[in-house]
């Protein structure tokens, strides 16, 4: 037995290095829960606005399932309500969602060995709220594990399920939601909760400040183009800050 003593000592180490898929999945869903408090009213507001903009219930719900990007969905229904040309709607949505390319590049090193079907699934689930939780988890681990993608799946599916349900609730309630509820406060609070912890260096801080100031100053631009201008200014400011 003395010869096996070193191997028996690994009994407590192996479980810490290699978690079961179900454990990682549940941990990801659990870590996503605090953010879902802000996501739920956000989804309800979208459901109400979609009906107000003239979309039928099926189309509004389908957009949450297919597009699955809250900011782009909000912008789309607002532009459609203003009879904005479809080309402008498509261009605006494209620019708004460009940030997902950066998210993908950030998590790619942790997922490079996954098969294509897993990458496709996780790419679909990659949103602001899921990314914030997942990248924090991945960067905080000293040794990447073979079941880390299950953590991503748990966080992403928790968010996806909440978004679908809250959208459905908003569609069901429709315009019956009293304006006095002022649920729209959840939108800026949710994004603030995601952005502030990520401002860890000068470049990120410059990007956030520049983009925020321009977004406020350009809020009156037609077709919500102020957001596009603000995003571009924020990116340029961040790049300049990184170079210096």
Instruction: Indicate the radius of gyration in whole angstroms.
Output: 21 Å
Low-confidence residue ranges:
1-17
Structural class: mainly alpha
How much of the sequence is in beta strands?
Answer: under 5%
Quote the average pLDDT.
81
- In total, the number of domains comes to 2
Approximate helicity band: over 70%
Overall geometric form: globular
Can you count the helices? 13
Kindly state the number of beta strands: 0
SSE series: HHHHHHHHHHHHH
What is the terminal-to-terminal distance? Answer: 61 Å
Q: Main sheet? A: none
Structure notes:
This protein is mostly helical and 244 residues long. The protein folds into two domains: 19-190, no CATH class; 199-244. Helix content is 73%, strand content 0%. It has 13 helices and no strands. The protein has helices at residues 5-8, 14-17, 21-52, 57-66, 70-81, 86-96, 99-111, 116-125, 128-139, 148-173, 186-195, 202-217, 225-243. The longest helix has 32 residues, at 21-52. The model is unreliable at 1-17 (pLDDT under 50).
């Amino acid at each position: 037995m003395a010869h096996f003593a070193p191997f028996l000592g690994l009994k407590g180490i192996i479980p810490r290095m290699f978690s079961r898929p179900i454990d990682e999945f549940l941990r990801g869903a659990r870590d996503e829960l605090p953010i879902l408090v802000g996501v739920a009213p956000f989804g309800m507001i979208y459901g109400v606005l979609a009906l107000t903009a003239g979309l039928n219930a099926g189309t509004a719900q389908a957009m949450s399932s297919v597009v699955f990007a809250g900011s782009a969905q909000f912008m789309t229904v607002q532009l459609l309500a203003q009879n904005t040309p479809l080309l402008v709607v498509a261009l605006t949505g494209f620019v708004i969602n460009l940030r997902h390319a950066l998210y993908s590049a950030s998590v790619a090193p942790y997922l490079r060995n996954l098969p294509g079907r897993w990458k496709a699934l996780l790419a679909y689930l990659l949103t602001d709220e899921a990314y914030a939780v997942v990248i924090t988890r991945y960067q905080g681990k000293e040794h990447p594990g073979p079941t880390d993608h299950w953590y991503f799946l748990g966080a992403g599916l928790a968010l996806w399920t909440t978004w679908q349900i809250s959208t459905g609730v908003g569609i069901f309630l429709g315009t019956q939601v009293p304006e006095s509820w002022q649920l729209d406060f959840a939108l800026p609070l949710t994004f603030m909760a995601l952005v502030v912890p990520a401002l860890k260096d000068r470049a990120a801080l410059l990007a956030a400040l520049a983009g925020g100031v321009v977004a406020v100053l350009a809020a009156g631009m037609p077709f919500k183009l102020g957001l596009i201008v603000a995003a571009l200014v924020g990116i340029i400011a961040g790049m300049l800050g990184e170079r210096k």
